[in-house]
Amino acid sequence: MVVDAHQEKLSFQAEVKQLLDIVVHSLYSNKEIFLRELISNASDAIDKLRFQALSDPALFESDSELTIRIRFDSEARTITISDNGIGMSRDEAVENLGTIAKSGTREFLSRLTGDQKKDAHLIGQFGVGFYSSFIVADKVTVISRRAGIGAEHGVQWESAGDGEYTVANVEKKNRGTDVILHLKEGQEEFLNEWRLRSIITKYSDHINIPIQMLKRTDDGKETTEWETVNRATALWSLPKSSVTDDQYKEFYKHIAHDFEDPLAWTHHKIEGGNIDYTCLLYLPKQAPFDIWQRDTHHGLKLYVQRVFIMDQVEQFMPHYLRFVRGVLDTTALPLNISREILQDHPSIPKLRSALVRHVLDLLERMTKDDKEKYAGFWNEFGNVLKEGPAEDFGNRERISKLLRFASTSSDAAGQMISLDDYVGRMKPNQKKIYYITAENINAARSSPHLEIFRKNNIEVLLMTDRIDEWVVGHIPEFNGKPLQSVAKGDLQLDEIVSTDAEAKKEEEKKEHDLQQEFDGLLKKIRSILDNKVKEVRLSHRLTSSPVCLVRDQNALGPQMERLLKATGQQVTEVKPILEVNPEHRIIKKLHAESDEEKLQEWTHILFDEALLAEGSSLADPAGFVHRINKLWMEMF
Ligand code: ADP
Questions:
Q1: Model pTM?
Q2: Can you name the CATH fold of 2-231?
Q3: Which terminal Cβ of the chain has fewer Cβ within 10 Å, N or C?
Q4: For 107-122, what is each residue's pLDDT tens digit?
């Protein structure tokens, strides 16, 4: 049968070798999934054929009855999964089965721990597909031919999963792919009709292509009649009431190439409105390993009238919802749509805004009905969703409601709160939502900027993600309440804390006196720090720290400044304002100090301390250490 074989022995890409080992070991406890994975690949291949045949019907080669067929041979100890899908050429077989094209694979593999349970979990989200054959087989033979090329251009690919494989040219009459598994010793359980049928119904019932097995006689002999084992209808086209949770879950695993169950889903059939569509959208439980990679594809599977058109269509989901998986089936697009035409099709914005609404509805429902589940979602995807207010102006308010932050009132378990929670707890006269940005939660909690808030028992949101400052920059207000950084501008807390006119007057007088008293010192500090600060002034925020740095209301905060610098962007440096706490013992001492040299040394120390407290680095750390040591020595 082999024609002019051109047999070649090739090595797997190093990553494949590694992955194969891990797959075989970590997924062994759930070995029956090999069949689901191979059926999933076969169904994808048939989808591709059906789509390409729309513009080139010759690809059907007069065989348009699309099926996946499964046979087993107890004597030869083989299981064969055949499809009459798009097939592979020799080059494609080498490329697809011998290498992994995903970027970030090496990094992903380096995260695996050797702990089978954890690895199985990670591998699941990576998607191992074809390689799962080697869980049960010690040799896999793939015979394939691409649709539309001559029978003599078939390819036979074969491997024992030990690092090498062979490819040879063969003749293959029917287009498509046969995957032949030569079962390992001890895997005889799969050479059983009922076992195979039950795996198919368990995992692959939703596949919308007939999966067939040969009918057998009562004594187990094969007849020649093929029988469809699965339901073979498009799951999303069924009414919700006729789909079980398990079927929804298995369908998700197929389309998302995820081994884990989804976190939640939402299924809609919209007809008779201004646009007809059916969508089934899923939230994964776990972020895929490459969610932060720029070139990663995401998006939905697009069907037009049940015909698969394209995978990973990004146009239907904004970037901040790129974790959503699912299918969209619509009559609003033509069957012969290409990726290019899709870009500008007038139905896209309508479909997109409808789908976004479904996802936001789903998330909103979760925040109400299942807070714990939502917390899990937030943990995985919160940082992605945070891109929303900047990207999707129209939904800014809705997305803002979904954001979660730590706060000074959060319990020790670090429970996150929503902006609605915050607003509900605001003081009677409080007009703004206060927040602080810092590198981490401890830095935020111990920041001097919080002192006055703590004293007056005013809640402050603690923002510790690198992008938080950028995020709030796109949420100028929530519910009519502006968001205000505690480290920016001149704080006006008086109206919240004291309403008593008498007390207010007294405060003002005290402030006036302090101003007069410390004017000289402030000027001196200003001249010592010279070009490092924009201004030196008395503070309204400090109770237990001597100094802190604040920024102008509209200036970048230190966190944002670092973020921009880290991404190589030009940052115009804005000098900070040094605020001084006249009640503090150190400041009083400074005030009384007549030795100019000491005053200078101490001022520099205080300024550097203020920089450290806000998480910035020092221009001259060694100089700082030197000064501190000197101060110490004076105490001996
Ligand atoms: P994935 O399906 O996640 O891409 P796999 O390792 O399962 O990864 O398969 C790798 C590639 O091999 C597929 O993307 C596809 O191009 C090709 N392939 C696998 N099985 C088939 C098949 N039955 N028919 C045609 N191509 C296939």
A1: 0.79
A2: Heat Shock Protein 90 (3.30.565)
A3: C
A4: 777 777 777 777 776 7
